[in-house]
Design brief:
- There is one protein chain.
- It contains 4 helices and 30 strands.
- The protein folds into 3 domains: 119 residues, Immunoglobulin-like (Sandwich); 146 residues, Immunoglobulin-like, CATH 2.60.40; 131 residues, Immunoglobulin-like (Sandwich).
- Strands 10-9-12-17-14-15 form a 6-stranded mixed beta sheet, with no helix packed on it.
- By secondary structure, it is mainly β.
- A hairpin with a 2-residue loop joins β14 and β15.
- The structure holds CU-O-CU linkage (C2O) and copper (II) ion.
């Protein structure tokens, strides 16, 4: 029997509001439906999602559906739509084709809008044999607030250069929009925790005071097999699905981030995001199969490279430094053709980390610093350590139009580390592909 496909509809209002991050502690926030994160969207594969966004901010906005393989016109960037002006409503409508932990966020003036809270989770349920006792979403964020708990951008040259270099990272640590959250879980239970890093620049090295967990999925859904770990790096934009537990009644531990050195002015620290308290034990019905699903192999390690991309950092008179793609800022890269397998070699020539994000398509990393990875995964965001090279494989399926890739450290993206490119359908007359190479870049 085929499941009924649904149309799932939401109304979003983008606005400015006061948000309580801890008892009595209000911050000045921007977001969707006066909450951080915005509404949690849930659908099944094949459902149509309709989100009507009314902009009640004082500036334009747009929403990008991070990780979703939807038509270009729905991608929410400045090359595929006009920004939603204050007072206007825009309807996003698309079919969700894949299961996974996805998210949405503002794609306009992101260094302010995302930082202030304009993001939320979008879950597409998987159909696997996996059963857990319950499921939670954890959206990781941090904010840099002034003494009145407001967002302000640094005015002076040096702090501005630091924020541009490091990305904006603050001391207000948020899990689902709250500080110092206490998570109550029952003993004996096994839960699925979906982590989404929605911060501007923070590298979240998940740790639960040494407790083991199983990584079962990432950006583009489930892995083939669960992977046992006691820490895992989740960079801005990335998702990580883990299975946590069972824990013993009475246990208390932190969900924390271990120090990760991504070469910044800021010193890496060990920081606590939430506390887990384990209550009374309950029977479990969890079942975690050894094979979660199969992932086809897109290409082998030595497949011929079809494009080279270099990420680097160069001097800039105005702001101290520019963030570059192929030695330029805000680039228009060459088009690709529908159905032609892409093998891109991405070279991080800089001395700091960058999480590379491709809009609208999943890729597989087929080589990292000369080695094939030890497991397969569908990714849309992947961290490049300083002076490393990766090779990714991806297939432009039949969704022609304008797309982009960029560093998901939002300040690097804004400082130029991004490119637009077109996916061209050769079977169509060229006007239909049009709009292309003259398109201007938007950050
Ligand atoms: Cu979450 Cu342009 O990205
Ligand atoms: Cu970067």
């Amino acid at each position: 029997m085929k499941a009924q496909l649904k149309v799932v509809e939401y109304n979003f209002e983008a606005s400015e509001f006061e948000w309580e991050i801890a008892p009595g502690k209000m911050i000045g926030a921007w977001g969707f439906n006066k909450q951080i994160p915005g509404p949690e969207l849930r659908a099944d594969i094949g459902d149509t999602l309709v989100v009507r966004v009314t902009n009640n901010l004082t500036e334009p906005t747009m929403i990008h559906w991070h990780g979703l393989r939807i038509p270009s016109a729905m991608d929410g960037t400045g090359v595929v739509q006009k920004p939603i002006e204050p007072g206007e409503t825009f309807e996003y409508r698309f079919v969700v084709p894949d299961a996974g932990t996805f998210w949405y966020h503002s794609h306009h003036n992101e260094t302010a809008q995302m930082e202030r809270g304009m993001y939320g989770a979008l879950i597409v349920e998987d159909k696997s044999e996996l059963v857990t006792d319950s499921e939670r979403i954890f959206m990781i964020d941090d904010m840099k607030l002034d003494s009145d708990n407001r967002f302000t951008k640094p005015g002076w040259f040096i702090p501005r250069v630091i924020e541009r270099h490091d990305g904006r990272q603050g001391d207000t640590l948020l899990l689902n929009g709250k500080e110092n959250t206490v998570i109550s879980i029952n003993g004996g239970q096994t839960e699925r925790w979906r982590f989404i890093n929605s911060s501007s620049a923070r590298y979240f090295l998940l740790h639960m005071e040494g407790r083991e967990f199983k990584i079962i999925g990432t950006d583009g859904g489930l892995l083939e097999h669960p992977r046992l770990a006691n820490e895992v790096l989740i960079t801005p934009g990335e998702r990580m699905d883990i299975v946590a537990g069972p824990f013993n009644e009475g246990e208390i531990f932190a969900i924390e981030s271990l120090p990760y050195n991504r070469v910044t002015f800021l010193k890496p620290k060990r920081e606590k995001f939430a506390t887990v308290k384990v209550g009374e034990s309950k029977p479990s019905i969890a079942f975690i199969p050894e094979t979660l699903r199969e992932i086809e192999t897109l290409a082998q390690q030595y497949a011929k490279v079809t494009r080279n991309i270099k990420l680097s950092v160069g001097p800039s008179m105005k702001d101290g430094m520019s963030f570059l793609v192929n030695n330029d800022v805000h680039v228009n890269d060459k088009p690709v053709r529908v159905g032609e397998l892409q093998i891109w070699e991405i070279n991080n020539a800089s001395l700091m980390d960058h999480p590379f994000h491709l809009h609208g398509f999943f890729f597989q990393v087929i080589e990292e610093d000369g080695k094939a990875p030890s497991f397969k995964a569908w990714k849309d965001t992947y961290n490049l350590r300083p002076r490393t090279k990766i090779k990714i494989a991806w297939m432009p399926d039949n969704r022609p139009g304008l797309w982009m890739y960029h560093c998901h450290i939002i300040e690097h993206h804004a400082a130029g580390m991004m490119a637009n490119f077109e996916v061209i359908d050769d079977s169509k007359p060229s006007e239909e592909n049009a709009r292309n190479h003259s398109a201007t870049c938007h950050t």
